[in-house]
Design goal:
Elements lengths: L2 E9 L6 H10 L3 E10 L10 E3 L4 H11 L5 E4 L5 H16 L3 E4 L4 E2 L2 E2 L7 H11 L2 E2 L3 H8 L9 H12 L5 E7 L5 E8 L5 E6 L8 H14 L4 H20 L11 H21 L1
Parallel strand pairs: 1-2, 1-4, 4-5, 5-8, 8-9
Antiparallel strand pairs: 2-3, 6-7, 9-10, 10-11
Bound molecules: 3-hydroxy-5-(hydroxymethyl)-2-methylisonicotinaldehyde (PXL).
Length: about 280
């Protein structure tokens, strides 16, 4: 069984970061070891949340893992609460990259043209350095703009996405994935491009509204698919279709929580989708 380290916050309520990575990766048959960065009473969109920084525990935790001889197939980082945490993540990502393991960085920091509430304005620079150490990154459009020094636009054409992907590849990653593409109001898309490969686009219908944690759900599903041996193109298709279906389920639920998506209800569907792709591969 594959085993990965996921380094991101533990929000006690909020359906994001580790509280999505753990169940999604477990459902996909992958062991997810945690390096919690911050303990929050609820994610940062809640008013008045309590937060405790856990940076002091990174070294003792990773030292113990090393002493125990634990080996991992990769690292997946998401929301990181400070530039110091991003720096610590960079050290680990570099170590995994030297070992030839999966280094997946979701540079969570902004959306809709602005940094998330409370994010240190110095974070994008630190996050850019972290992305340079990664093999695969999954920024949304706003994050891709921050990472490449591109002006933010709310509607996108192929040339704009191509420009962003090329800028991200110049950071030195093997594969750049951009999420949240809007070419028209009815569709939402993702795109992936590798060094020396043409971009691959995938679109789903767009359901208007704010769906917190949808980006984390996309990233965790992508990580799982990549570890199961899917190509980047198949991984983004699987993850985007699964996230779309989860958003549709959430939007149809009158009792849906305002702060997160109903992924608990759609996990069985993720397994069914996986089964289909795996069976297709087995049949050759
Ligand atoms: O979903 C991204 C995310 C993760 N973790 C925390 C957040 C957010 C987005 O706001 O606040 C703590």
């Amino acid at each position: 069984m594959k085993r990965i380290v996921s380094m991101q916050d533990l929000s006690c309520v909020g359906k994001c970061s580790l509280s999505i990575a753990l169940p999604v990766l477990a459902a996909m048959g992958i062991e997810c070891a945690c390096l919690p960065t911050q303990l929050l009473s609820a994610h940062t969109v809640f008013e008045g949340f309590y937060s405790r920084d856990l940076s002091d525990s990174f070294a003792p935790i990773t030292r113990h893992w090393d002493e125990t001889g634990l080996e991992f197939d990769g690292i997946y980082t998401g929301f990181l609460g400070s530039t110091a945490q991003v720096e610590a993540a960079r050290g680990l990502v570099e170590k995994f990259r030297r070992e030839g393991k999966l280094c997946f960085v979701d540079p969570v920091m902004a959306d809709q043209g602005a940094l998330y509430h409370g994010i240190d304005p110095a974070l994008p620079e630190a996050m850019t350095a972290l992305c340079k150490s990664a093999r695969i990154i999954t920024p949304n459009i706003t994050e891709a703009c921050l990472l490449t020094g591109t002006d933010y636009r709310s509607s996108h054409d192929t040339a704009y996405i191509h420009h962003l992907l090329e800028g991200l590849l110049k950071l030195g990653v093997e594969t750049a994935i951009v999420t949240g593409i809007h070419t028209d109001s009815a569709h939402m898309g993702v795109a992936a491009m590798g060094q020396n490969t043409e971009p691959v686009f995938h679109f789903t219908h767009h359901i208007p509204g704010l769906f917190h944690g949808a980006g984390d759900l996309f990233a965790a599903t992508c990580v799982g698919a990549l570890l199961l041996g899917y190509s980047a193109a198949d991984s983004i298709r699987l993850a985007a279709d699964y996230v779309f279906s989860t958003i549709r389920t959430t939007a149809a639920d009158p009792d849906a929580r305002w702060y997160g998506v109903n992924f608990e209800q759609t996990l069985p569907e993720l397994l069914a989708r996986l089964g289909k792709v795996i069976r297709k591969e087995e049949e050759g």
